[in-house]
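Lay summary. Proteins are chains of building blocks that fold into shapes, and those shapes determine what they do. In this project we predict the shape from the chain. Here is one chain we studied, written as its sequence of building blocks.
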Amino acid sequence: MTLERFTADQIRTHEQELMVRVPADAPVGNVRLRSQLLLLGWSESLYWDVRKHLIQRGVLAPGHGKGGSVRRIPQAITQGLDAVAAPTIESVTEADNISQQYADEKDLYLPMSEAIRNGWAKDRALDSVIVEITAQQGARPAGKWTRPDITLASFQTFPYVPGRHFDVVTFEVKPHSQVNVSAVYEALGQLRAATRSYVLLHVPHFAKASLEVDIDETCREAKQQGIGVIIAEKPDSYDTWDEQVEAVRREPDPARLNDFLAQQVSLEFREHVIRWLK
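And here is the predicted shape, written in a compact code that computers can read:
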């Protein structure tokens, strides 16, 4: 990474050189910014690295437009330019390590499924629980937006409510590079065969500010559709998870639920369910 060869003071200088060219109340295009900084001797790679780090630290947010753009985060505007503190090599390395460790969606499945089993389920006092990664269940038939990434089944009885209560909860997992409202529609497709469906977003600390708009849009749409939204700062630590939208419980068509269990979960999962229901 280009920034690794600079001292903290040099990095701060580069940040200030970029920030003074970003208006306080309007976005500015990458092409315009880059061309101005090239005149100061910047390389194209240096521009992208400094821009990336400012976004990761919540000082700038990316925008649309031809060639893309950036805008100041309101908090950074009110604090002024001095708020742009120099990043340390340690903070650069931490962000890069997180991005590399969870670069692909599939890297999130195992730690998140464990956090669901050992944290999320216990927080809801679910005694009998099965959790399984269902995103890669071989060649089992599934249409677009029907197979969840993680599936949980629970079985409960209550002292003052007659009957036995069986729930299937699905989780649509997204890494921070894929946070957008489309995840809600994927979860909605799964709700046809589940009692609750969640969108589970990995949003590490360095990416929170830059994803604020996408998260808000996702939460608004999720509320309208009855889909839950969970923001996970650390995939393997439930203590860092924040349920921003609670999923609405629904009763799926029994035939759809039965077909889902027959096609999308393992034999061990199904046998466990059968033992519950005997």
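What the prediction tells us: The domain at 2-100 is CATH 1.10.10.10 (Arc Repressor Mutant, subunit A).
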